[in-house]
Amino acid sequence: MSGDIIDSAFLEWTSGLPLQEQLISIFLHIRDIPYALVPSLGNQMSGPEQLLYIGKGSCGPKHHLLGSLFTRLGIPVRYQLWPFLWNDPELLFPPDLRASAAGLGITSHLACLAFLNEKWVLVDATWDLSLEKGGFPVNQSWDGRSDTLLAVHPVNREDHPGFFNTPVPRSRNVKTGKAGRGEFVDLFNAWLDQVRYRA
Fold first, then answer.
1. Bridge partners of residue 113, in order along the sequence
2. How many domains does the chain have?
3. What does DSSP assign to residue 130?
4. Axis-axis angle for helices 59-72, 19-31 (nearest 10)
5. Measured distance CA(2)–CA(159) in Å, rounded
6. Pick from 85, 108, 103: nearest CA to 159
7. For residues 196 and 186, what is the distance between their CA atoms, to the nearest angstrom?
8. pLDDT for the residue numbered 127
9. What is the DSSP letter of 57?
10. Burial class of 77 by CB neighbour count within 10 A (0 to 12, 13 to 18, 19+)
11. By residue range, what is the domain housing residue 15?
12. Cβ contact 100:183 at 8 Å
């Protein structure tokens, strides 16, 4: 994973800070990148760079970027997938989006585990702050050492992939693989923008 834009972001977000503040700064900057489902960012190597170029993206590129930058600071990182359903009753979907989500099967959410203070800590920078108004479990802050909230409500499934020590291949990353996914992506992204700009 390389690119001037990633190098520049790393320097901008970490220069002159002690380690814990560097971690917090990276987390907050990545969290604040607006969440959107962008299928073209599915490649684990090019996705983080493209995320920074277009200024939006989903959990996959966000956490591949976060993991890469934490690794630059000498922090061991694992990637974990959690199976979940988009049709989560706690999300305040309008009727058309709810109907579209109901047709989707189990998909996977990607986040990071960072080895901090001799233990693995969940670091989930998925939802940007404005999405709290839509019922999303947004992490308003992070102390650089404790678990964050997980961005989804995982479903029980014994065969879920679990941990990866390297970026997760696209074939194991977030996808639905169901008819109607394109409709859901369009409706979901449009609704996210409505939530962000809601008074």
1. 78, 122
2. 1
3. G
4. 160
5. 33
6. 108
7. 16
8. 98
9. B
10. buried
11. 4-196
12. yes
SS3 133: helix
Provide the pLDDT for residue 157.
57
Task: List all residues 6 or more positions away from 198 whose beta carbon is below 8 Å from its beta carbon.
Answer: 133
Comparing 42 with 13, the larger pLDDT belongs to 13
d(CA 123, CA 117): 14
Instruction: Give the strand pairing for 119-123 and 162-164.
Output: unpaired
- Residue 168 pLDDT: 62
Could you give the residue ranges of the DSSP H alpha helices within 32-164? 47-54, 59-72, 95-102
**CA–CA gap between residue 67 and residue 45 (Å, rounded):** 12
Tokens of 134: 């839509």
17: left (phi over 0), alpha (psi -120 to 50) or beta: beta
Query: Between vectors from CA 38 to CA 7 and to CA 144, what angle results, nearest 5°?
Result: 50
Total count of residues recorded for the chain? 199
pTM: 0.89
Look at the block and give the residue holding tokens 């930058």.
Answer: 69
Tokens of 143: 């102390």
* pLDDT over threshold 60, residue 2: no
Q: Which residues contact 87 (CB under 8 A, 6 or more apart)?
A: 98, 101, 102, 104
* Average pLDDT for 33-56: 94
**CATH (domain of 44):** 3.10.620
